[in-house]
Amino acid sequence: MKLSSLFTFIFFIYVTTYTNKTFGQAGGVFYSIKGTFATTDNTPARDVVVQLLQAADKKLVKLEYTDAQGTFSFDHLPEGQYLIATQSMAYTPWLSATVTLNKNTLLGTIRLQTTTTTLREANVTAAKPFIQQQYDKTTLNVAGSISAAGSTALEVLEKAPGITIDQNDNIAMRGRQGVLVMMDGKLVPMSGQELANLLRNLSANQIEKIDLITNPSAKYDAAGNAGIIDIRLRKGHQSGTNGNVSLSYGQGVYPKINPSVNFNSKMKKVNLFGSYNYNYRQFMNDLTIERQFYDAASHYTGGINYDNFFRLGFNTHNARLGADYNITPDITVGVVANGIFNKGNITSDSKAESFDIQQQKTGSFTTIGDNHPKRNNGSINLNYKHRLDSSGKELSVDLDYARFSNDELQNYRTSYFDLQQGQSKPDYRLFGNLSGELSIKSVKADYTQPLKSLDARLDAGIKSSWVKADNDVRFFDRSSGTDILDTGKSNRFVYDENINAAYLNASKKWARLSIQLGLRVENTIAKGLQVTNKENFDRNYTQFFPSGYVGYAFNKTHDLGISLSRRINRPSYRELNPFKVFLDPLTYSTGNPYLKPEITNSFELTHTFKEKYITKLGFSTTTDNILEVLSPDKEPNSVIQTGHNLARYNYYNISFSVPFTVGRWWNSTNEALAYYGEYKGDLANTHLNASRVSFNLNSINSITISPNTTMELTATYNSRTYYGFLDVKGVWFMGIGAQRQLWNKKASVKLNLSDVFFTNYTNAITRLTGYGETFFQRRDSRVFTITFNYKFGVSNSGGGNKKAGGAEEEKRRAG
């Protein structure tokens, strides 16, 4: 870390701590409500969720838990009228009379009735649905999902509302690419197939929940113009030593095995947690392609038809270990280390037939590939959190270091045949040795300051990150029996990036109105060097990213919110890397060092009806939109895939979230999205003006058969849509699962069948000047999985640090 950056960081902590002491002397009159819950036999009622509601409309203000003695406390409350309500699986619900708060109030001891015959009702009420819609995000509760059992993170995302994954493994949210993926709030510096491979090797058993954030506030990185996917990994919060072990076996075309263990040990001031997951997966990719080439007058000049089959196998070890230590009740330090170690074997068999101008077959060739990728990813996080007082003043600091290494050996042999299947020319043998390293260092600090005199809150923070990528790709022609370096395919690319950011975010709530305004500024310094031919680029730019939200509650039935933001999507280092990657003798992909970042300005209007039914209306416009384009290369009948900047992409959308229940046995969450994407600009000697109205429909249904048996049914439909030059046909697929609780709910067995009718495939057409292509792709998507899960250990309820409790997000949002 540079000395100037370190000084700035230390100065920030000093200033914000001093500011805390200064503001702490500000005026304002606030009160508290305290009480104790106990059973009829005077046993403390532990871990009861206590809700503080506004008496006028029963809107949630705050949440708390009772401790080991059954006590709770709501502090720093303005004068007003409130209600107190409880929620617990062990006790019947309780609602207070109206509490008029004009002084510190002690409610005394309140008796709760233990639940007996109403256990089933309590279970249904407490269970989290797989999908929860909120104003600013959609949450997937992966840990409790039947359909997620034995799946990977990528497969869970594929079932999520508004998420689609194309044939090149690019993730789109609500019809837009450029999604930022994070894990536990930390950026995953990958895109495309690299990101997809990481998510394929992350088991859903390790995930607590996934947040899909469409319009992030200034507190988040400005990257990700389509939104943010934040994957939150499991971490125990209960006192005592406890955890779970699971084993899943899946069978599609090929087998998948996934054993895992998670544990948490929380004693007094120390919380130790960890997990280990092993993932053995084999799957396939069956891809057929019909390519057509044209002259300047759009006359057919020839073509190639491909029949490709890829078999992929991966062995992945994923370990996580962390600890939190409470120095004082208000100061916590922690450390978390993650490691993902992956070895793979990818075999490919590509058969190609070539055609002349009369569409007569002229010959064929086959390419056999045998690749052995190895990826080791490690990261460590040091964190510090200081609750400066009971009013909500808080300082948090994170130091992160991550290292990603990638080594891959590739072997290709291409054989050429004439019309009589005789060898038409010698075999072409290509050997590739690919190695790469990526390191990330970052430091950030966030500070929260309540403004008592304004009854508002101020959030501020700074962040600096340093990224260094070094990729060395060497290809050798082995056709003659010796290794001859292929300088046209070999290269070394070094990329350095430094981003320095600061943000300020202010929020205030009135009885009906709530406002949030934020501004983030980011300075980007990037340098790229293509070592072989000494080509380089050097960029230094500073940009501002405002964001804002205004919400108004008209009454108990209707809420309305408006959000705006400006975001950036920087090209990844691989998208900038100009060397070619071999796919077959006539197909290459390459980066574009002249790619510019794309900028998106977006607007979203959200209406909530009866706190359940959510309608969103949005618009965004993106300049310099980054598109992956397949176009003719210099050699006859060859194509190259590379990224280009499109002048503009306009996006309009409307979505409806409709949850409903039938009795106590059927809960259904449904989302319908309609969007209109409009691409405009000139790329690859072609004027692009493509637009279409498209639809995404998603339904998640949970059916309770008995207190110990539940079923889950999922269904997804994506209509025909455009991605630049690519015209993708519609697709639908369904999944079904069942769960049985065993041994007093300490164990469970889950059965799941994904893509029941084997309909989840990709069928698309692309057409531009001089080139056209139709392809059909099918993957190993229909998989039957059985998962056994067992919870072990004991839990000493109550006490301890609750900074990461299950309702913390709701508490934060409630104020």
Task: Name the features.
disordered C terminus; 815 residues; 45 strands
- Mean pLDDT, nearest integer? 84
The proportion of residues forming helix, as a percent range, comes to under 10%
Query: Which spans have pLDDT < 50 for at least 5 consecutive residues?
Result: 3-27, 116-126, 796-815
Q: Helical stretch count? A: 6
Assembly type of the shown chains?
A: single chain
> Helices and strands: which structural class?
mainly beta
Q: Span between N and C termini?
A: 36 Å
What's the shape? globular
Per DSSP E runs of 2 or more residues, the count of β-strands stands at 45
Gyration radius, to the nearest Å? 28 Å
Estimate what percentage of residues fall within beta strands. over 45%
Q: What profile does the largest beta sheet have?
A: 22 strands, antiparallel, barrel
Could you explain how this protein is built, in words?
- The longest helix has 21 residues, at 3-23.
- The protein has six helices and 45 strands.
- The protein has a 22-stranded antiparallel β-barrel. A six-stranded mixed beta sheet has the order 8-9-15-16-13-14, with no helix packed on it. Strands 3-2-5-6 form a four-stranded antiparallel beta sheet.
- It is mainly beta.
